[in-house]
């Protein structure tokens, strides 16, 4: 882990992809309290519009997708976008492949450890700890994608994306969990029946996409130590790392596309926009036979979220890096350049006393629904001010 200080602060000029930092900051703001602000606004103005928006600030129970389900994979996608720039910088500094691989593995290991700490605090009850985590998932998926990216060309990467996503679909559809499904589902005839029902899933195929019957949960139960987040299944489990690698790889391919030719251009933005729309459409259509599901990180989910992330990045890239629109973007940069910091800090540091100190008495002057909104905005303001303090002193936590 590195802390960049004054003379090593990230550049803010043309040599840095500012749209990436802005997008990362916007994404992390929902983790930093923006979701709570939206929900509080909905409570202040109860109507179908705001209720629908507020509903997006929560996860779906299983199949389907809401905005909140996209925050984590979007972060992984953006981590992928930054890698081609980092890789080029390391190679320009004369670093060997072995040194780069060591750094990749170290980064992944640090994220796994931070994820375990985030889930369990400092604990020595190893039998009951939760080892799977958001940060660990990011670290391992990013590592797998980085190895593939460094050792393949664009055509091979595209082929790998297709093979992994289709293979993952076939695996989950054809092989249900052995411990929660009838023995006669594992006969040759049953496999043939499931294969013939891929496009119009029968009961057995659909069972492979449920928490109780999926192979994803079975692998977690067999291989993950400690406890699982949902007892029989973990949304950041082992098997779902496979399609998560594709999410990171899509980001790396996006970053490589942006980096080519060095100069920012509207043509790149248009290509990314079209590619994102195609990916989103594939994910939407695939949902009919392989449901969009974050817990399983299904192939349709990977395409849909990867496509949406690509579309948003294309728009921000065009506005910020091509058209040089910078007004107000520093608000998001403050968060985006210390995203891991605020994620961990909210687990370690209690920002609520500071919020109550500055906003508590003021909020008490208003009705409860308005007070809820004031306190939600106050919490964001305290967190953002903490990051501004680091930003002004050019302290950036990097993993």
Order of strands in the sheet with most strands: 1-2
The level of helicity is 55-70%
The SS-based structural class is mainly alpha
Tally of alpha and pi helices: 16
Mean pLDDT: 92
Describe this structure in words.
The protein has 399 residues and is mainly alpha-helical. It has helices at 18-44, 48-55, 67-92, 97-120, 134-150, 154-174, 188-196, 203-207, 215-223, 241-259, 266-286, 299-322, 330-336, 339-348, 352-363, 368-392; strands at 2-4, 396-398. Helix 1 (18-44) runs antiparallel to helix 3. The longest helix has 27 residues, at 18-44.
Spell out the key features of this protein.
mainly alpha, two-stranded antiparallel sheet, 2 strands, 2% strand, disordered N terminus
Give the SSE layout.
Elements: E1 2-4, H1 18-44, H2 48-55, H3 67-92, H4 97-120, H5 134-150, H6 154-174, H7 188-196, H8 203-207, H9 215-223, H10 241-259, H11 266-286, H12 299-322, H13 330-336, H14 339-348, H15 352-363, H16 368-392, E2 396-398
Antiparallel strand pairs: 1-2
Helix pairs in contact: 1-2, 1-3, 1-12, 1-13, 1-14, 1-16, 3-5, 3-10, 3-12, 4-5, 5-10, 6-10, 10-12, 11-12, 15-16
């Amino acid at each position: 882990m590195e802390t960049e200080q004054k003379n090593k602060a990230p550049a803010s000029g043309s040599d840095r992809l500012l749209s990436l930092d802005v997008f990362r900051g916007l994404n992390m703001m929902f983790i930093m309290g923006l979701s709570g602000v939206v929900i509080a606004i909905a409570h202040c103005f109860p109507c179908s519009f705001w209720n629908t928006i507020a509903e997006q600030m929560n996860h779906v129970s299983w199949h389907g997708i809401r905005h909140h389900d996209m925050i984590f994979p979007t972060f992984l996608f953006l981590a992928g976008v930054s890698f081609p720039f980092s890789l080029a910088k390391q190679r320009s500094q004369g670093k060997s492949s072995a040194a780069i691989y060591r750094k990749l593995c170290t980064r992944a290991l640090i994220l796994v450890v931070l994820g375990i700490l985030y889930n369990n605090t400092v604990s020595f009850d190893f039998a009951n700890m939760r080892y799977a985590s958001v940060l660990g998932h990011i670290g391992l998926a990013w590592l797998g994608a980085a190895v593939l990216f460094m050792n393949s060309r664009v055509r091979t990467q595209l082929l790998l994306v297709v093979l992994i996503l289709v293979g993952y679909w076939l695996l989950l559809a054809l092989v249900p969990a052995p411990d929660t499904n009838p023995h006669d589902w594992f006969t040759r005839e049953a496999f043939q029946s499931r294969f013939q029902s891929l496009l119009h899933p029968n009961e057995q195929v659909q069972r492979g996409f449920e928490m109780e019957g999926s192979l994803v949960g079975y692998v977690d139960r067999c291989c993950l130590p400690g406890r699982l987040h949902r007892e029989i299944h973990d949304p950041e489990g082992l098997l779902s790392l496979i399609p998560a690698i594709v999410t990171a790889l899509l980001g790396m391919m996006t970053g490589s596309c942006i980096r080519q030719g060095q100069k920012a251009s509207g043509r790149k933005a248009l290509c990314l926009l079209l590619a994102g729309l195609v990916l989103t459409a594939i994910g939407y259509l695939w949902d009919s036979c392989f449901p969009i599901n974050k817990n399983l990180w299904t192939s349709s989910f990977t395409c849909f979220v990867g496509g949406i992330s690509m579309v948003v990045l294309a728009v921000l890239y065009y506005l910020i890096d091509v058209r040089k629109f910078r007004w107000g973007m520093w608000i998001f940069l403050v968060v985006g350049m210390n995203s891991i910091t605020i994620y961990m800090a909210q687990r370690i540091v209690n920002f609520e006393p500071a919020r109550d100190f500055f906003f508590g008495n003021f909020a008490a002057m208003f009705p409860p629904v308005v007070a809820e909104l004031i306190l939600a905005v106050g919490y964001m303001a305290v967190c953002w001010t903490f990051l501004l303090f680091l930003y002004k002193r050019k302290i950036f936590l990097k993993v």
